[in-house]
Amino acid sequence: MRGYIHIVTDTERVVDPDGQQFESLASAVGEARQCARDLMAEEVRQGRPLPLNWRVQVADQEGCILATLKFAVILFGSETPTHPLSGSALDRDLVERAKSIFFKAQRTQGELQNGLLLLRDNVRTLSKLTATF
Hints:
- This protein is α+β, with helices and mostly antiparallel strands.
- The chain is 53% helix and 17% strand.
- It has helices at residues 25-45, 71-76, 89-132; strands spanning 2-8, 13-14, 20-21, 55-59, 65-70.
- Strands 1, 2, 3, 4 and 5 form a five-stranded antiparallel β-sheet that branches.
C-alpha cells in the first residue's frame, strides 16, 4: 500500500507530499510511530518542550486518514492508534479529509473544463476544414 505520514502540530498540518510503499497498514503505523519518536527526540535535543499534543496520521493515496496516533500516547501509554471515526479525533480528521477530497475534486474539475475547451476548439477547427472540402 502507498501510505502518507502527516504531522499535526499545534498550528499546522504538515502533509507528506510523496508517501512511500508499505507492506501493510500495520507497517505504516509502525513507521509513523518511529517518525513521532524521532520528532520528539529532536525537540528535546533542541531544548524545546515535548510536543505531547501533536499527532501523526497515516493516510492513503486519496487522503483518507487510516490511523491517528497521539504523541503523548506513543510516549506514555497504549500503542493503539485511534481511528478517525472514534473520539475527539473525528472532527479534525474528518475536516482534513473533506478538505483533501474537495481540493482534489476542484483540480479534477479544472482539468475536465480545460479538456472540454480543447475538444470544442478541435471540433470547430475540424468543422472549418470539412466546410472547405
